[in-house]
């Protein structure tokens, strides 16, 4: 039952994967632009849906009908994308390498998908860590509508990877957005494939 719930939840997150996409700084933000000017609206992928096709892709008109929620949509999309990228790596790597500990061994858990039910204490630790991170972000989320910060920007850059050039920064934002969207689709496919086929990577019958 729990595996079925996880599978449905994983597939549901892919629905966020094609929402419009983040821009650089508040000073350069033009609210009249599509999706508040966030990166991703000028995509070049061939998607022949709606009046504008790939460019400014928003067939449901959410950027207009729910304009006040656009920053929250982008925040959610980026957060789910980042989690999905970590989840994809976390689902594939243990198929080949395990951390030390008998309970994590290939003998104890032959299939990665079974770790969810086989390691309840580890699941509680993960849940606690996620809850802590979510709780510490409440303050940032509360200022979203005041545009105190850009969606997804927590000022966390310990390695100073953020480009100082605005064009390169926007390019990096677009890369994160696209990889996050791909990862949301990927982790949904990984979980579904694991449950349906009962096999590990590459999750084929």
Question: Would you kindly provide a brief summary of this structure?
Answer:
The chain has seven helices and no strands. The protein is an all-alpha fold.
Keywords:
0% strand; 7 helices; disordered N terminus; 205 residues; mainly alpha
Summarize the structure in words.
The chain is an all-alpha fold and 205 residues long. Helix content is 47%, strand content 0%. It contains seven helices and no strands. The protein has helices at 2-13, 62-65, 70-92, 115-118, 120-136, 138-142, 166-197. It is globular, with a radius of gyration of 19 Å. Residues 1-31 have low confidence and may be disordered.
Helical residues, percent: 40-55%
- Give the overall shape: globular
Tell me the Rg in angstroms. 19 Å
**Which strand-content bin applies to the residues?**
under 5%
Order of helix and strand elements from N to C terminus: HHHHHHH
Major sheet: size, sense and barrel closure? none
- Integer average pLDDT: 78
Broad structural category? mainly alpha
Topology readout:
Elements: H1 2-13, H2 62-65, H3 70-92, H4 115-118, H5 120-136, H6 138-142, H7 166-197
Helix pairs in contact: 1-7, 3-7
């Amino acid at each position: 039952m729990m595996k079925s719930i996880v599978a449905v939840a994983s597939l549901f997150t892919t629905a966020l994967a094609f929402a419009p996409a983040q821009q650089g700084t508040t000073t350069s933000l033009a609210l009249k632009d599509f999706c508040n000017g966030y990166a991703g609206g000028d995509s070049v992928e061939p998607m022949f849906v709606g009046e504008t096709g790939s460019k400014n892709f928003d067939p449901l008109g959410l950027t207009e009908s729910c304009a006040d929620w656009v920053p929250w949509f982008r925040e959610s999309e980026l957060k789910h994308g980042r989690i999905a990228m970590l989840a994809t790596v976390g689902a594939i790597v243990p198929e080949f390498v395990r951390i030390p500990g008998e309970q994590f061994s290939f003998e104890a858990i032959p299939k990665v998908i079974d770790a969810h039910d086989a390691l309840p204490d580890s699941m509680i630790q993960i849940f606690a860590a996620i809850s802590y991170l979510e709780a510490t972000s409440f303050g940032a989320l509360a200022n979203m509508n005041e545009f105190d910060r850009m969606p997804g920007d927590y000022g966390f850059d310990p390695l100073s990877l953020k480009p100082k050039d605005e064009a390169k920064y926007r390019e990096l934002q677009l890369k994160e957005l696209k990889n996050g969207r791909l990862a949301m689709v990927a982790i949904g496919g990984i979980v579904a494939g694991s449950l349906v086929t009962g096999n590990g990577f590459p999750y084929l019958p």
